[in-house]
Amino acid sequence: MARRAKGEGCYVHLVPIKCENCKQFKTCVKRKDPAAKCQQRDRKESWAYQYSVKGVDGKRVRKAIYGNSKKELVKKVKTLKSEANSGLQIDITLGEWLEVWKSKYLVKTVRDNTQDFYGYMIRYIPEKLRRKELSKVTPVMIQTLLNSLLEKGKKTGEPLSTRTVRSIRSTLISCLDCAIDNGFIVVNPARKTKPPLLVKKEIVFLNQIQMQELINVADAGDYYFEKHPKAKTDIGSQYLIKQFSMLIRLAFASGARCGELLGLGWGDIDYIRKSVNIHNNLQNGKLVEPKPNTVDGVSVSIRILWIN
């Protein structure tokens, strides 16, 4: 058994220090005299109990709780020990655990784009809730957060979509499930919340005429030259406009995702079979594996054919 630090596990009686000169607690006739070195104390008598806990990084952290009387402090210590015996770690805040979960449990266990997705979702958790002790986070607190994000979640004051709010809830569920596995909490409060009703927006597709109009705009490049008039004579800008135009044509022909198209390289083109194979997906400036595409439960590779 490890040796306890000095004063740890003991009830300490804290008595106010009297003035060295007049021996008074509240009033001192020489307190304005710098040479008198008067140490006035208005603090009342109190009791303290010191203990140490194991932090999320595995190191022991020394803590202390206080009471106005020894009887009051003994009750607080009993409550503290009962919570500790039930597997609760009350000194870890939600914000601390979010950072540990993100840096220790997501790294090298999920895809990079999944890590970025979780990191983006937890940004919506406000600082006030992050400062709450993990064991004191209730379902009502999380439900209140979800409801408020539906009303005003974006920085512009606009509400978040129901799909995003549901993703925030699922992220909290995964995070707090991991906290249960580590013995920091017993019940996952996020699982006791209700997800918002999913509202699906109707997808409006471009018809053939609208698609041709978009291609004409992309070919002309007027949208770019209006902001950069001098770019009309720049070869690099003209090449960039052609690239954008080709990207739009390829999107119309294939229906591939934007990141999959931006992740294409010259090695992905098969001139013999007249096809383009998608092997990468560009997300946040990094090339990652594309999402699996399945047909009848069987994973298939994406190949885009073209006709001369």
Provide keyphrases for this structure.
single chain, 308 residues, alpha+beta, DNA polymerase, domain 1, 3 domains, 3-stranded antiparallel sheet, 10 helices, 10 strands, elongated
Structure summary:
It contains 10 helices and 10 strands.
Care to describe what's here?
This protein is α+β, with helices and mostly antiparallel strands and 308 residues long. It has 3 domains: 11-85, no CATH class; 94-192, Orthogonal Bundle (DNA polymerase, domain 1); 208-305, no CATH class. Helices cover 38% and strands 14% of the residues. The protein contains 10 helices and 10 strands. The protein has helices at 70-85, 94-105, 112-122, 127-130, 139-151, 162-181, 208-220, 222-225, 235-254, 258-262; strands at 11-14, 46-54, 60-67, 269-270, 275-278, 281-283, 286-288, 293-295, 298-300, 302-305. The protein has a 3-stranded antiparallel beta sheet with strand order 1-2-3. A 3-stranded antiparallel beta sheet has the order 4-5-10, with no helix packed on it. Strands 6-7 form a two-stranded antiparallel ribbon. A hairpin with a 2-residue loop joins strand 8 (293-295) and strand 9 (298-300). Helix 5 runs antiparallel to helix 6 (162-181) and helix 7 (208-220) runs antiparallel to helix 9 (235-254). It is elongated, with a radius of gyration of 31 Å.
